Write the structure tokens for this entry.
Amino acid sequence: MDFLVWLENTAIADAIRTIPWLYPMFETGHYIGLSLLVGGIMLIDLRVLGMARGLPLKGMIGLLPFVWAGFIINVLTGSMLFIYGATNFGVNRAFQLKMAFMIVAGLNALAFDVAVRRSGGQWVAADRPPTIVKGFATLSLVFWLCVVTTGRWMAYL
């Protein structure tokens, strides 16, 4: 808890509290990152699972750089939002669950990305995702929905 108190009393936290536009800017950035991340990954996951077959799988996989950009944006903006209220967020069960889901969702996304790169795009070009990749896509949908849900619950729990 001492670390959380220290974090909440840093110059960055003080700036976020005293500069009126700073907190809304970070929160807006967090929503933009969330849109890129979860929006992109859900489109990819649903396509891998066989939805919207009219859309080329290769084009959907091309969204991965935007997904990773959204992830980075969310880590950066989320860190700033956390610093602002570290003592409250640090003990919030919804926040703790969100972080756990984010870690497993991020590892799952990394495994998916590695599976795409290792195959050299063969299954992407053939539009035949292997069973393991479909498993990654299914887990991804579940994990990222849990991240979003627990993130929303933070204000109420």
